[in-house]
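Give me C-alpha cells for this 290-residue protein.
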Amino acid sequence: MAQPPSLRQLRYFVAVAEELNFRRAAERLFITQPPLSRQIQALEAMLGARLLDRDRRGVRLTEAGERFLEQARALVRGLDQAVSRFQPAAGRSALRLGITTVVDVSLFAGIGDAFESEWPGLPLRIRRQLSSQLIRDLHRGALDAAVIGLPSATQGLVTEHLGDDPLVVCLSSAHRLARRRRIRLLDLAQDTLFWFDRKLNPAYFEHCEQVFARLGFDPPRLAEPAEHPVLLGLIAQGRGFALVPQSLNTVRRQGWCSAAWKRSRRCASAWPRPGPPVPWRPRCRRWWRP
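Here you go.
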C-alpha cells in the first residue's frame, strides 16, 4: 500500500457502509454521489480489497468490508476524541447531551462520572426528549450529541450503534396470556393496542407498520397516552396492551410484561459531524417476569 487512507476516505466509507445507499450517504455527507464513488474506489484500490458489492438490488458490505468497517469507525472516533480533548472549551461552556425518553433513565446513572473522567473540566448537560425532537435539536445546534432510538430520520448525522432494546408486551396481570413466557403478536390480533402518533417519529412508525403488514397484524388501536404511568394504569385496567422497550423497567409496577417480538428497537448515539462520541454503552438485560 503506497499511502494510508485519508480521514476523508474513512468517513466516506463509514457513511456508505451504514446507509448501504450511495445517495443517502452523499446527502449525509453534504456532497454529490460522483466524488463519493471515486473516493470509495480509490480506498478499495489502496487497500487492494473490495469493500462493497454494488448491483441492482443495492449495496452490501463484503466480508473484507465488514472487517474494515470496525477499524475505520475506531480510527474516526479516536481522532474525534483526541481533537475534542484539546478543544473542550472552544465556544461552549458544557457538552449538551440528549437522551431519548424511551429508555429507562437509570441506565445512565453513571454517565456523569464517566464523562468527567474522560473530559475533566467540561460540564455535562442532559436533556430528555423524544428521538425526533433530539434529532431536530442536533440539526439546529441546540445539542452536541444524543442517544436516540432507531429507525429514525438520521440523514446528516453520524450514528453509532450502541445496543438493542427488545420490545416486550405489556399486559394486564388479569389478561388470558399474562402467564406465558413468550407471546406471538398474532395472539393479540383481537386485543386493543395502545399506539403512538406517527408525527412523534415517522421513520420508526413506518418501520413498525411495514413489519405489522408482513405479519398480517392489524389490531384495533387507541391513542397512546403521553405519560407512561397513565398508559400503565389503563393497561392494568384491561383497556388494552402496549409494545414497550424492555429497558423501561417501570412496567414492573403494574401489569405483566413478557417477550413478545423478536424484532428490537435499536439504540444509537448520534451527533453532528464532527463531534465527540458519548462515553457510554447500554447494559443488556435478560427477559424478566414480575
